[in-house]
Amino acid sequence: MSHFTKVKTKLVDAETIKNALAELGYKVLDGKSVAGWSGKKVNSEFKIKPSKSHYEIGFVKNSGSYEMVADWSMMGLNKEAFISKLSQSYGRVATIEKLTAQGYQLIEEKVEKTGEIRLMMRRS
Predict the structure, then answer these.
(1) Which of 32, 102, 113, 122 would you label with 1, given CA atoms 20 to 30 Å apart?
(2) Nearest 5 degrees, angle CA 84-CA 88-CA 23?
(3) What is the pLDDT of residue 9?
(4) pTM for the full model?
(5) How far apart are CA 32 and CA 96, in angstroms?
(6) Are the CB atoms for 40 and 71 separated by under 8 Å?
(7) Alpha-carbon Rg for the chain in angstroms
(8) Which of 50, 52, 93 has the alpha carbon at shortest distance from 68?
(9) What 3-state class would DSSP assign to 63?
């Protein structure tokens, strides 16, 4: 039998999370409730539906950062790989957003063989 599990993150800004999820190809939906196994639901601020099944991943703010809540065992998604991709995308989006606000412009972006992202930015 499956159940909802919360995963703590260091992600703190809702809009940056939403932008990172969109960059990864997910449609961000208003939260209200997250669907799990056997019709069970739990509240969230916003959510995504990562597969064609009815299972969802919700995002809930707790003590300054967001937690992801989902019925991970039923989703058929590698939790660690998802968290890693989201964290990397969040870091990329947050960096570009902050530096753009300070007058920088993205000139070049490279993804190394190791998966590391290199950004070249120049002050406008």
Answers:
(1) 32
(2) 105
(3) 94
(4) 0.88
(5) 30
(6) yes
(7) 16
(8) 50
(9) coil
Q: Which of 73, 69, 79 is nearest to 8 (CA)?
A: 69
Q: Where are the domains of the chain?
A: 5-123
- What does the pLDDT read at residue 71? 87
Distances in whole angstroms, Cα of residue 51 to Cα of each of 48, 56, 86, 96, 119: 9, 8, 16, 28, 30
The CA-based dihedral angle spanning residues 84, 86, 91, 92, taken in that order and rounded to the nearest 10 degrees: 110
pLDDT of residue 2: 54
pLDDT along the chain (124 residues), means of 10: 82 97 94 81 91 86 94 84 95 95 95 92 90
What 3-state DSSP class applies to 59?
A: strand
Say how far apart CA 82 and CA 102 lie, in whole Å.
Answer: 30
